[in-house]
Amino acid sequence: MTSSQGCIDAAPSFKTAPIDVLTSCKDVQVGLYPEDASSAALLPFVGARVEAGFPSPAEDFIERYLSLDELLIQDKASTFIVRVQGHSMIKDNIHPGDILIVDRAKRARPKSVVIAVLDGELTVKRLMKDDDGYYLKPANQAFPVIRLRQGSDFQVWGVVTFSIHKHEE
Amino acid sequence: MSGPLIALADANNFYCSCERVFNPRLEGRPVVVLSNNDGCIVSRSNEAKALGVPMGAPIHELKELVREHGIAVYSSNYPLYGDLSRRVMTILGRYSWQQEIYSIDESFLTLTGIADPVQHAKEMRADVRMRTGIPIAVGLGPTKTLAKLANFCAKKLDPWRADGVCNLAAMSSAELAQLMAGIPVDEIWGIGSRLSARLKAQGVQTVLDLKTADQRLMRRQYGVVMERIICELNGVGCLQIEEVAPDKKEIMASRSFGQLVTELTDIEAAVATHVSRGAEKLRRQGSVAALISVYIRTNPFRAQDPQYSGYMPVPLVVPTDDLGVLQSAANNALHTIFRPGYRYKKAGVLLSGLQGRDVGQGDLFADGPDPRREALFATLDRINGKYGRSTLRIATELSGRRWEMKQGNRSPRYTTCWQELPVVLT
User: Fold this and answer.
1) Do B424 and A16 touch (CB under 8 A)?
2) Interface predicted TM-score (ipTM) of this complex, two decimals
C-alpha cells in the first residue's frame, strides 16, 4: 500500500505544499475515524450539538437541520475566524468589521483572497498573478505591488473562504 | 516492515509556538511563557533557550536578560493552548488507527504496518504545521519508551533535527548502541531528575547503561516500572501510558473499561472517578490546574465496531484544585464529545497548566514575593474558606478588570472569544 499520493503544486509554493492527506489517508485506512461530528469531509454531519437519543450510526435516517458550521467550515482543525480592520479591500467587498473564515489547508490560487503575513502583520489581500509571477496589491495604490519571490516577501497564512458582513445592528 | 511501530508526536515548545501562530513577528525571536500566579517560566522558544533562559525560573530574576535581548514575555493563555491542542490532536488522529493522547501536546500513534513510516511521519508533521501553524517532532520506535527517545533525537540531534523525524526501529543494533551510549539516562521516559541522580551514582550514566543493566537487580532496587522501562529500551513493549506520569507539569488519570460502555451515564461516572483521582494528586503536590481535558474512545482493535474518539480541553477561568469546578468542567467537556451509538473502551482526564497553589498575583517585574501580600492572601483564604468563596475579594476584582489571575501580558483568546479575534489589516 502506498503511504501517500502528494499533490505538489507546480506553481511557486510559498508555504509547505499541502499534500492531499485525505487521499493518502484512504490508502492506509486512516482518516476514516471521526474526530467529531463535524469533521465534514468524511462524515455525515449532525450538528454542533448531538440531540440526545439519536444514535450516530443511524444518521442516514434523520433529516438534518441547517447548520452554519456545516456551511462555512470544511475542516474544523484548519479553520480560523478573524476580523477585518481598514478600508482598502472595500472594492473586493470586504469591509472593516467583517468576519472572515480562513482555512489554512486550502491552496491559494490567483484571485484567492488570502491572509498574508506582511511585515509581521496578518493582512488580507487578493492574490494576483501576472507574467512576472504572484503579487499582492498594497493598501496604498501609490506604492508598488508586493511581489512574491524566492525566500518569500510574504507567506500565506491561510485562504479566505467566506466573509460575513453585518447589515443590521 | 515487521514488528510493532509506535510514534510519539509532540509540539516544539508548545505554548511559545501557540503564541507565534497569530503573531508572526515572534518567529525567530526569543519568547517565553509564564505561569500566571508566580511568573515562572513554563515554556521557552529555542532562541530563548540559546540565551540561557532556565526553565522554571521566576521572571523577575531575568529582567536584565529580557531587556537586553528583547525577549517577548507572555502570561499563559490556556484557552488558546487548549484550542490549538485540540486541533493538533485531531490532525494527528487522522494518521493512525490507534491514538493515545498523552498530554496537552503529546500523542502516541501506532504506525505498525505502514509501508514508509518516516515518510508518513513527515507528511503528518507538514500537515500539522500547515493546518495549525504548530511545529512538531516525531520519534518512531518499537516501544513507547523508544519512540520517546527517538523524539528527543528528532528534536535535538543531527541528522534528524532538520526533518524533525527519527526512526530508531530502522537503525542497526550497532548504530543504536552507539547512539544510546551518547545520551544521558535523564532523557528516558519515566526517569526524572531524582531517579537519574540515583542511577548515575551507581554508574548508570547513559541510556545504553540502563538498557544493558541487569533487569532483576534494577527491579529489586527501583521497582517494577524500572524493569519495564529497561524491557522497553530493549524493544519489548510492556508499559501502559498510565504507568508513566507525563511530568510534574501535567496529571493524567485514565483507564480502559473492563467491558465496552455505551451509556453516557456510565462514562460520566468513569470520568468523575478520574477527576477525583486527578484532583487528589493535585492537592498532594500542592498544585492547581488551569486546564482540564477529557478524552474518550472506542476500541481500535475491534474492527467490527464503528470507531470514534473525542478530545476536549476546557480552560478554567481561575486555576483550581476545587473538585466541584473540575467535575463540572469535565462533565461539560464530556457532553460535547460523547456520541451515542458507539462502544467506548476508554475514558481519560488530563490536568494541565499546573502551577503552585499559593494565591499570588505574580507581577511580571515585581521584586519577588511580598510577605505582607502573602499574609493578606492567607487571611483571605481563611475567611473565604470559613464563610464561602468570594466572601472577600481583592479590590481589583471588584473594579471589573480581569482579576482572576494577574494577566500581565496574556495574548488575546484568538480562537475562543469573539471580542478577541485576530485582526487582519487591509
Assistant:
1) no
2) 0.85
